[in-house]
UniProtKB/TrEMBL annotation:
A molecular function (GO) term: nucleotide binding
Pfam families: YajQ
Tagged with keyword Membrane: no
Protein name in the entry: Nucleotide-binding protein C8E99_1766
HAMAP family per UniProt: UPF0234 (MF_00632)
Database matches in CDD domains: YajQ_like (cd11740)
Family note: Belongs to the YajQ family.
Amino acid sequence: MASDSTFDVVSKVDKQEISNALNQAQKEIAQRYDFKGVGAEVDFSGESILMKAASEERVKAVLDVFQSKLVKRGISLKSLEAGEPYASGKEYRMEATIKEGIDQPTAKKITKLIRDEGPKSIKATIQGDELRVSSKSRDDLQATIAMLKDFEDADLQFINFR
């Protein structure tokens, strides 16, 4: 009797690549002419990324620079969750966080999608912040991976294909 083939669905981000993108954004903001004199900066504080500038438009421009650096480093913007700009004294601030792991509501959406639209032999189980997908047919697993590549709510990676 053949054993089940499996793969794991995870949502992970390389911390070093985020650090590199942040450093590149800091350098570009320090050098760009349109950021001179507006107090624009981007910093990593604990788990969140803090962007500051003198006006709301400049804070959004700082976010745009940071997003472009993330894309160049191969990090999906689905894993960046940016808040709205808010006034803090004389400057505007915006906080952004990097989402890692698959939260319960998203995991339930993925399992429902697999159940409804995937091949019938596929079984998906939630294991903490990742999903294990199993089936006897490797072709069904590959069809499921192809279907999940278009998932909009999270940046997904597929590992441990056995």
